[in-house]
Amino acid sequence: MLTSVDADLMRVLSDPLRLRIVTLLARETLCTTHLVAETGAKQTNLSNHMKVLREAGVVETEPCGRFTYYKLRPEVLAGLSGQFAALAESARTAAGNKRACP
Prior knowledge:
The protein is α+β, with helices and mostly antiparallel strands and 102 residues long. Helix content is 61%, strand content 14%.
């Protein structure tokens, strides 16, 4: 069953820019400068989105000199994926169940 934490994570990932960032980070660890170049977002806007992703536990930071690198936490996405897989399996099992109307 999906929890309120899972619902919050889905809300975080529903933003198109944040989903783009997650997609980019699924391929490699990137710094803010790379993410600005790849997404075309303003640095301040991107920083706000990164804060949301960090607070949701989707990404973690890695300081490197004056730069901050971001990397994806795959276990967070795998957990959400597992919840959806469980829902899909439940739907397959329940396909023949039909509640009678009163």
